[in-house]
Each structure stands twice: as C-alpha cells, then as structure tokens.
Amino acid sequence: MYEPRPEHKFTFGLWTVGNVGRDPFGDAVRERLDPVYVVHKLAELGVYGVNLHDEDLIPRGTPPAERDRIVHRFKKALEETGLKVPMVTANLFSDPAFKDGALTSPDPWVRAYALRKSLETMDLGAELGAEIYVVWPGREGAEVEATGKVRKVWGWMREALDFMAAYAEDQGYPYRFALEPKPNEPRGDIYFATVGSFLAFIQTLARPERFGLNPEFAHETMSGLNFVHAVAQVLEAGKLFHIDLNDQRMNRFDQDLRFGSENLKAAFFLVDLLEHSGYEGPRHFDAHALRTEDEEGVWAFAKGCMRTYLILKERAQAFREDPEVRDLLAAYYREDPEAVAYLGPYSRERAEALKRAEFPLEAMRKRGYDLERLDQLVVEYLLGVR
Ligand code: GCO
Ligand code: MN
Ligand code: MN
Ligand code: MN
C-alpha cells in the first residue's frame, strides 16, 4: 500500500532531486547528480517521468557534438527504464543576460536570445517525447517601477508566446504550453503573479487552445491565496495542463518544501480535488530536499512526496465514503424544489415570479450549516483516528 507506481503519474524534475542545496547565503551542500543516474534512481522508486530545463541536461555552452552525445546517452537511460519526459522548459533565469528579464527584457538582443533558447528547448523536448512545455516567467518582473516597462511587457510576452505556438505548429510538435505564475522571487515583483492573471492573459493569445496553466502550490500560497480554489478554477476552465506540487509557509521566501509537509489540510483537499477531476496529467513535485540533507535525504524526500500523496488519496476517499460525511453533505445541499424553480436561465416570467416570491426569511436566517461537525471529521481523518 502507498507504493508509487508509474500509473500514478508522479514526476520529478532533474533540478528537484538534483538540487545541490545552494541558497542566497550558502554554497552547494551536495554534488551534482548525473542525469542518467537520476533516471535510474527515479525508475527504482516507481516514478513515471522526469522533467527538465534545457540546462539541467545540457550545460550552457556545450558544443553541438557533445550535446548530441549527452542526449543519446540520456535517451538510452529512458529506454532502459521506461521513464518518460512529459515536460520540458527553458531556463530563462540563470544566465546573467536575463538579469532584467528574458522574454520581457528591455533589450531586444536579450528577448531574441530568450526566444531562440525557447525554440531550441522545444526541439530538445521533441527529441525526448515531451508534450508539455512550461513557461515560468521568473525573471519577467521588476524592482524599479520608473521605467514604465509595465506598459510594454504584456505585448512582448504575447508576441513571444504566439511565436512559440506558431513554431510548434510549423514543426508539427504536439506541445501544450503550461504557464506558471509566481508573485515574486527572484524578481521583486513578477508580472504574471497569480493563476487568475495568466488565465485572463491566455484569452488574448492567437492560439488560446494551445495554452493552459501550470499552477504551483507554493506560489499561490506565497501570495496568500487559496491554492485549492485556484486549481478548481483552472480545472473548470479546462486549463489544467500541468501542476507543480510542493509546500510552503505564507509570507516567506520560496521554500519548495516536501509535498504535504506544511499545509496538510490544503494538501488533503488538493488531492481530493485532483483525483476526482478527470485530470490525467503528471503529478509533478517541484520541490527539493532540505539543505541539511545528503543524498540519502534526497531520496527520502522524493519517497515522502509520493507516499504522502497516496496516503492523502486514500484518506480523501475514505472521508468521501463515510456515511456520516454523506449525511452531512446531503443535508448541506438539500434543495427545496419551490426555491429551485426561481433559479436558472433568465425569462421574463421567472423574473416576475421572483419578484412576487415569499421568502422564508426567518428560517433562512436561523439555519445552521453544521460545518463544525463536517470539518472536525476532516481533522479526524487527517489524524488517522477514523
Ligand atoms: C521556482 C519555479 C521553478 C519552475 C521551473 C520550471 O519557484 O523556482 O517553481 O521551479 O517551476 O523553472 O519552469
Ligand atoms: Mn516554485
Ligand atoms: Mn522554487
Ligand atoms: Mn514550479
């Protein structure tokens, strides 16, 4: 029980389990792991796939012949293990050239360089069989407002994303683009700050059907928003193309904690939502082991993410099947046909009937919704006493 298997669709990034534990104050605490070794380790753990930035696999400045050799060796590891590469993404944040933005840099050389890097990453991903392309605009932000760049970035970003989608079409690549919002870090303020921001922006693109979201637990939590609500809205819009799972305390630096390690209740309702949503894409853990850990700690971290997800899945299922929960929910959604008749699509008759309606105001105001009992049951499922 709680054993991860490929059909659970768990994925990790090369940059997550391969994270060397650098932070703004401290040097690396772990060695870089060979991507081929990571593939074999992840396969042993029952993982479905491994995702990557271009530079996680091919260090910047690698000559073409060496690049091909690296890709060949990596593909061989994928074949040997059956691991997939569902998603790729361009690193548009590490190169010092991107210090004032990549696709929204004020310097057209930088914008063109970022665009070229994106196309090359799409080529690489196509070689590896990836069908999801993530765009994380980590450097597309500002600390200084005086430039007025805020008036231009939307146009630059639209042009770049339209270009990328047209390139995918032209090359016959199957990519669906998953846009990943974040409020800040590494920039003081990132322009595409929240799920709602990207959802609205997609509708202004030339091929909106190619674009969706890659929401991240930590990012909405940093914004003080409710991640479960954000994901529900993305699902309702048919735009959940990918998801980054991790954990985070509000009002802190980007922590990338092990899934479920901090906000257990939100993780419970997230798993409950995802597992009943029809979402069949990867469950990607965009997190990393604490800086205190050696390599053994890294694999314990990876196992922990998946095990917690599977435990929460079982707990949520049991909660939904509990007769007491069912009774409480049936009462919560009890529908009086007399009231329901007043609702629905507009008609003149309905509007007139609504104006004549007599409301049971006393009862409406006195009703108790029994949510204390319902929520206590959640807590008891989480504590494992039910
Ligand atoms: C972060 C982001 C990144 C992106 C990754 C894929 O906070 O650093 O979440 O990890 O998800 O670059 O685009
Ligand atoms: Mn993140
Ligand atoms: Mn991060
Ligand atoms: Mn992420």
Automatic annotation (TrEMBL):
<keyword id="KW-0479">Metal-binding</keyword>
<feature type="binding site">
    <location>
        <position position="256"/>
    </location>
    <ligand>
        <name>Mg(2+) 2</name>
    </ligand>
</feature>
<keyword id="KW-0963">Cytoplasm</keyword>
<feature type="binding site">
    <location>
        <position position="286"/>
    </location>
    <ligand>
        <name>Mg(2+) 1</name>
    </ligand>
</feature>
<dbReference type="GO" id="GO:0000287">
    <property type="term" value="F:magnesium ion binding"/>
</dbReference>
<dbReference type="GO" id="GO:0005737">
    <property type="term" value="C:cytoplasm"/>
</dbReference>
<comment type="similarity">
    <text>Belongs to the xylose isomerase family.</text>
</comment>
<feature type="active site">
    <location>
        <position position="56"/>
    </location>
</feature>
<protein>
    <recommendedName>
        <fullName>Xylose isomerase</fullName>
        <ecNumber>5.3.1.5</ecNumber>
    </recommendedName>
</protein>
<feature type="binding site">
    <location>
        <position position="244"/>
    </location>
    <ligand>
        <name>Mg(2+) 1</name>
    </ligand>
</feature>
<feature type="binding site">
    <location>
        <position position="219"/>
    </location>
    <ligand>
        <name>Mg(2+) 2</name>
    </ligand>
</feature>
<keyword id="KW-0460">Magnesium</keyword>
<feature type="binding site">
    <location>
        <position position="216"/>
    </location>
    <ligand>
        <name>Mg(2+) 1</name>
    </ligand>
</feature>
<keyword id="KW-0413">Isomerase</keyword>
<feature type="active site">
    <location>
        <position position="53"/>
    </location>
</feature>
<dbReference type="InterPro" id="IPR036237">
    <property type="entry name" value="Xyl_isomerase-like_sf"/>
</dbReference>
<dbReference type="GO" id="GO:0009045">
    <property type="term" value="F:xylose isomerase activity"/>
</dbReference>
<feature type="binding site">
    <location>
        <position position="180"/>
    </location>
    <ligand>
        <name>Mg(2+) 1</name>
    </ligand>
</feature>
<dbReference type="InterPro" id="IPR013022">
    <property type="entry name" value="Xyl_isomerase-like_TIM-brl"/>
</dbReference>
<dbReference type="InterPro" id="IPR001998">
    <property type="entry name" value="Xylose_isomerase"/>
</dbReference>
<comment type="subunit">
    <text>Homotetramer.</text>
</comment>
<dbReference type="InterPro" id="IPR013453">
    <property type="entry name" value="XylA_actinobac"/>
</dbReference>
<keyword id="KW-0859">Xylose metabolism</keyword>
<feature type="binding site">
    <location>
        <position position="254"/>
    </location>
    <ligand>
        <name>Mg(2+) 2</name>
    </ligand>
</feature>
<keyword id="KW-0119">Carbohydrate metabolism</keyword>
<feature type="binding site">
    <location>
        <position position="216"/>
    </location>
    <ligand>
        <name>Mg(2+) 2</name>
    </ligand>
</feature>
<dbReference type="Pfam" id="PF01261">
    <property type="entry name" value="AP_endonuc_2"/>
</dbReference>
<dbReference type="GO" id="GO:0042732">
    <property type="term" value="P:D-xylose metabolic process"/>
</dbReference>
<feature type="domain" description="Xylose isomerase-like TIM barrel">
    <location>
        <begin position="40"/>
        <end position="287"/>
    </location>
</feature>
